[in-house]
Model the fold of this input.
Amino acid sequence: MLSIQNLHAQIEDDQKMILKGLNLEINPGEVHAIMGPNGAGKSTLGNVLAGKDGYEVTEGSVFFKGEDLLSLEVEERAHAGLFLAFQYPVEIPGVQMLNFLRTCTNETRIARGLPELNGMEFLKLARAKAAELKINPDMLKRSVNSGFSGGEKKRAEILQMALLEPQFAILDETDSGLDIDALRIVSEGVNALRDAKRSFLVITHYQRLLDHIKPDHVHVLADGQIVRSGGPELALELEERGYVHYEKAA
Amino acid sequence: MTSVLANLRQDADTRFASLGWPNRRVEAYKYTDLSALKQADFGAVVANKAHDLNALNGIEGLTLTTASQADAEVQAKVGSLLPLSDAVAAYSTAHMDEVTVLHVAANTKIEQPLILDHHRSGKNASFPRYLVILERGAEADLVERYAGDSEGLTSPVVEVFVAAGAHLKHYRALSEGSATTHLGWTATELDRDASYRHVALNHGAALARHNIRVTLAGSGAHVDLLGLHLLQGKQSCDSHTFIKHAAPHTTSNEVYKSVVADAANSIFQGKIYVAKDSQKIEGNQMSRGLLLGPRARVNNKPELEIYADDVICSHGSTVGALDESALFYLRARGIPAAKAKQLMVEAFIKEVLEDLDGVSELETHWKPLIDAYLSSVFSSAPDA
Amino acid sequence: MAATADTVERVKKISAETYKYGFETDIEMDRIPKGLNEDIVRMISAKKNEPEWLLEWRLEAYRRWTQMEEPDWAKVSFPKIDYNDYYYYAAPKSVADKPKSLDEVDPKLLETYKRLGIPLDEQERLAGVAVDAVFDSVSVATTFKHKLEEVSVIFMPISEAVEKHPELVRKYLGTVVPTTDNYFAALNSAVFTDGSFVYVPKGVRCPMELSTYFRINAQETGQFERTLIVCDDDAYVSYLEGCTAPMRDENQLHAAVVELVAMDNSEIKYSTVQNWYPGDENGKGGIYNFVTKRAQCRGVNSKVSWTQVETGSAVTWKYPSCVLQGDGSQGEFYSIAITNNLQQADTGTKMIHVGKNTRSRIISKGISAGRSDQTYRGLVKMLPKAEGARNFTQCDSLLIGDRCGAHTVPYIEAANPSAAVEHEATTSKVSDDQLFYCRQRGMDEEKALALIVNGFVKEVLQELPMEFAVEAQALVEISLEGSVG
Done:
C-alpha cells in the first residue's frame, strides 16, 4: 500500500533537515502507530506525505499503491485515497460545513469516475454518517471548524474521513486536546472504518490513543528516523519508560 | 554653514514659497488648517538648540558635533529623510540654522539618556534641528522635551538613522504653553534588524502638529509608535504618522490614545504603507479617542496602503465616551464620580505606557505632566 | 508556494471570454449629435417633452458643471476624458413610438434582456420582481405596472414620472444630491436620460421586489441614469439594480445619480449588482462608473440599507451614503468589491449622523487580484447633536497575487461625546493553511479558492434579496475565473 524508502526532507525556508532517511512499509488493512518525542519529525512526515508546501524532499521515494506519490499534487494524492486528519483543523469562516463536505466528496468522486451526488442525496448521506459518528447534524450548518471546540474539530475530521472513504489515512495527533469521552467517540469512528483494505498511520505522542485504536505495528521516530519497531507492547514500554532514551540518542 | 546646508535651506525656502501654509484642501492637513499662519507674527528667530547640550559632552561612545563640522557623509544625511513637499518640513528647513549631530559609535550601549531639553518663553520662533545616528549594533535612549510659555512658534526637526542591529528608544514630550504653536517633524530610517520605539506625549501647545515618518528599510526591522494626546481648553493636536514597510520581514506596531476634554480637538492620521515586493509584513495599528468635553472632537484617519500580498495588516479605531456601566459600578462601590472618571482615564492611557515601567524619563518628567492634566480636567468637572 | 503562484498566473490570464454579457444588440438607434453644450441639453429635454422648469434645472446644472473641475482625490487614474466625444442620447428607434404594452416592444429588445437573464414577457418574467428595463438613454419596458398600481406604488421610468407625477418629482429631485454636489452629479443633472422613479405611499409595504436593469448598448455613448426613490411614512420597498454592457475597446462613461428619501418609520433596501464590462486583460475598454448615491433618512426611525456587489467597470468611483437626520434612523452599507486585471475601484460609503440615537453599520469586503487596485474610502461623521449615535465598521481586504493593491482609507469625525464609533480593518492574502486543507480534501486550487472567497464575502451576500443572492454568488466566482471555478 505505502512504501517509504530512505526519505529525507527539509524545511524549505531554513533548509533544516527534519526527516533523515526514514523507511516504512504499510500493507493493506494494517494499522501502524508512529510515536516519538516532540520535534522528532512526526508531523512533518504527515505533511510531506500529504504534499504540504514548505517542505523539500531531498532524497528517497514514496510509493502509494505502486504510484510515485511525491510527483502528485496535493489534491491528486487525496483523490488517490490518501487522507490526513489534521492536528489543528483549519477554520474557514463563512463556508458552510455541508457545502464544504459536498464539494470535497464530489471532487473526489469526479476524480474517481463516479457520478456527483446532488444536494438531497448528499444531505442524506452526510446526515447518516454524522449519526453513525454521534455528531450533532447542526454542525453541518456551521462554518468549517469555526468556533468548534477541540472535540468537535476532531470529530469533524473523522466525519470527513468517513465521507471520503480513503484507502490510507494519517491521523496526526488526533488525540491532542481531547477528553476521555471525545477520545472514545473519535476512536470508535476510526475503528468503524477499519477493514482489510484500509490502512492507517496513527501519529501520537501518548500511548492512551492506542488503548482505543489497537495498532498492528508500533514505530519509534527520533531525530528523523525510525529507530525501533515492534508490536503493540512497544507502546506500553514507551509509556513506562518515556522517550528520554531516544531523545539522548537524538 | 556649509554650502550643502545652505543649499538645502535655499531649496526649502523656494519650496515653501510655492507651497504656502496648507489649508484644509490639502489632504494631509484636512483637519489642521494652517492657512491662518500666513498672518501670524512669531517674532524673532532664537535659540535653535536645546539649552543643556553641554551635559552630553564627554559621554563615552557619543560624538556631539554640528553638521558643519561633520564630514560630507554625515552632511548628506541632513534633510534626506524629510519630504520637502510637506509645508512644515519645508518651512522649518528654510529657517534651519545649525544642525546638532548626535553620533553613537558602533556596538556601544549608552546607559544615560541623551536629553534634548527645550524651554522657551517670550514671543519668538525656534527651529531646533538634530541628526541622530546610531551606528551598527549601538543602543541608546533619546529624550526630547518641549516646554515653556512662548507665544511664538517651535518647529523642531529630528532625523534619526538606526543602523543594522541598533536599537533606539525615543521619548518625546510636548508640554508647551497654551499660546505656543508647535510644528514638529521626526523622520527615522531603520536598517536591517534595527528597532525603534517612539513614545510621544502631546500635552501642550495651542496648536500642535507632529509628523512622524518611519521607513523600515532593512529586513527584520521593527518599529513601535506609541502616542498620547492629553488635551483640554481649545487645544488642537494632530499626530500624523507614516510607516513605510520598504523591506520584507518587517513589523510595526502603533497605538495612539487621545483624551479630549473641554472643546479640544484631537487628530490622528496614521498610514501603514507596504511597498511592492515587501512580503512577509506584519503591521498593526490602533487609535482610540475618549471624548470628555461637551464640545470635544476627535478626527481619526487610519489608513492602509498595500502593494504586496503576503501581509497581515490591520487597524482599528474607536471614539466614544467613558463606559457608563463601568462608571456606575465604581460609584456604587463608593468612589466619587470625578475620581471614578479619573481612574478610568488612567486605565485608558495605561496601554500606551504599560511596558515603560522603570523608564526614568516617564517617572520624573511625564508623570507629573499627566497627573497635572488629570487633576485639572477632573477638578473642574462637575460631580455628576 | 509553487501552487499559489500557479493560481496567480491563472488569475492573470482571465480572459474577456468570461464576461458573458459582452454581446451587442444590432438595432436601429435614434441619436442626437455628439458633444456637450447647452443645445445638447435642450435637445435631450425636448426628446423627453420636459416642462420648462426641468429644462432650466438642467441648464443651470450644465452651467455650473462647466465651472467645476473633475475630482482628483480618488486613488484611480485614467486618461483625460473628452466629454465632447460622447453621444449623450441614444435610444432604439422603435421606442420612440412609445409601446403601450410589452406586446408592442421590439422583439430584439426583448431578446436582449432574455439573454441577460431578465425575461420581460408575461410567461417567463421573474415572479415577484417588477422590472424596469433601461436601454442606453431610455426605458424600454416596465413589468407588473398594474399590479403595483393596485397598491398605489408608483414604479416607472423617471421621464414618464416627470409627465405623470410632476409634483412628486419636482418636490424631491435634487434635494438629496444637489445639482452642484460634485462634478459628476452636476454632469448627470444636466444630461440625465432615464432611470427609475419609485414612490411608496404611506403605510404601504411594496409587495414585490422592484428592479431596474441598466444596459449600455450603443457605441461611444454615455449613460446617465437618474433614480429617485421616495418611501413615505411607514412604507417599505426593496429595490435592485443590475448593469451590463457590451465588450468594446473604447471606454464608456456611466455617471449616475441615485437619490433615496426615507420618511418616518419607513425602510428602503437598495441592492446593486454592478457588472459593467470591466475591460480586457490588458485594461483596454470597459466602463467608467462614476456614481453618486445618497440616501436621506429624513424620518424618525427610518432605515436605508445599501448592498452592493461590484465586480465590473474599468474604473469605479462610488460612495453610497446615508444622511441620518431622523432621530433613531439607521443606515447600513454592505459591500463586496472585486477587482481583477487592470480594474480600479475607489468605493465605500459615508454615514453622516445628524439625529439622536442614529445607528450605522458598514461591512466591506474587498478582493483584489491581477494588477488591479482597490480602495475602500469611508466617512463616519458624528455631528454635535448626534446624541447616543453608534457606528460599527468592518473592512476586510483580500489580496490574490503580488501585483495588486488594496487600500483602506476611513475618516472618522466625532463631535459628540456620547456618540461611539468603532472601526476595524484587516488586509491579508488567502491563507496557505486554508488552501492546503481544502486541497487535502480533494479540491483543486481553483475550487478551494472559490470556496474560501465565497466564505469571505458571505456576510454581505446574505444581505441580498433571495432572488439575486444565487446570481451574485455566481458572479463573484466568475469575476475571479481562471483561478476560481
In short: The first strand of chain A starts at residue 2 and ends at 11.
